[in-house]
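Hallway conversation turned thread

IA: we were arguing at lunch whether anyone had actually written out N-lysine methyltransferase setd6 end to end. Turns out nobody had. So, for the record, here is the sequence (294 residues) and right after it the structure tokens. Reply here if something looks off.
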Amino acid sequence: MDHENNLGNFLSWCDTNGLQLSKKVKVSLEGSCHRFGMIAVDDIDKGESLFEIPRSLLLTPETSSISGILETLANDGQFALENRSGWTPLLVALMYEYTDPSSHWRPYLNLIPDINVLDQPMFWGRHERQKELKGTGILEDVEHDVQKIEEEYKCIAWPFMNKHKQYFSESHHTLDLYKHMAAFVMAYSFTENSSDEDDDSDSENATLTGPAMVPMADILNHISNNNAHLEFGDEKLTMVAVQDISKGEEIFNTYGKLANCDLLKSYGFIECELPNKYDMVSCQLHKDSYTHEF
């Protein structure tokens, strides 16, 4: 099934399940900077709602069809001690839903990029990573992420799945699939800031819930000077225009205040057409060799 058919099925699924999409936008491969994107088909004013997503459409361990057994994973003392990323319940849920042909999220999951087209450095060959990332400061971080993902699969995810063979099998729910889902979560998930100060993620009172997959919201591409922002409500999530958007423009969310090195590490791309306002250069200064004359 081609991309257009998958997209059509996804949009029908969204409509059937209560997602409200503004008539001023369209989801398309055309006019997007990368894969699918959202394009304005009419002028949009700042503050307008672009789409509303009922919370029932979010894919989380709690909404998954195996939420019952995943609760035992989350409450397991050994899991709580060993799990570092906090992603394992969601990754296990995604592995199950992704391999279940009758999954409620099937039209959504059919849009996941195939593993052989993912651009994150964790999917590059080891030699390629060392060659291309040498001197960037992120090579060690990528190697650490790969090692951590492999350890969590072997020490937590697979032992848990092996206890529930009615849902999982060694032939289908492999380390490669776990890495694929980890890349999906890394690049497309959202984490809700549950504090009252939604725009201040560094607030001492802010507490973060686990990551969630948010259909439609994750179709928007990133730019640091974004023109849209996702707002979390009690019953629904709303993507709101934060700038006036002209007809024909692509609608961009932001993945956070990320420098190009962070974008490359987690998403496999950098901002190059416009300056990334979050870029920085670290310089190590040696006190004995630094002089300044007034």
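OS: looked through it. Strands lie at 20-21, 25-28, 37-40, 49-54, 221-222, 228-232, 236-241, 250-253.
IA: good, adding that to the notes. The longest strand covers residues 49-54.
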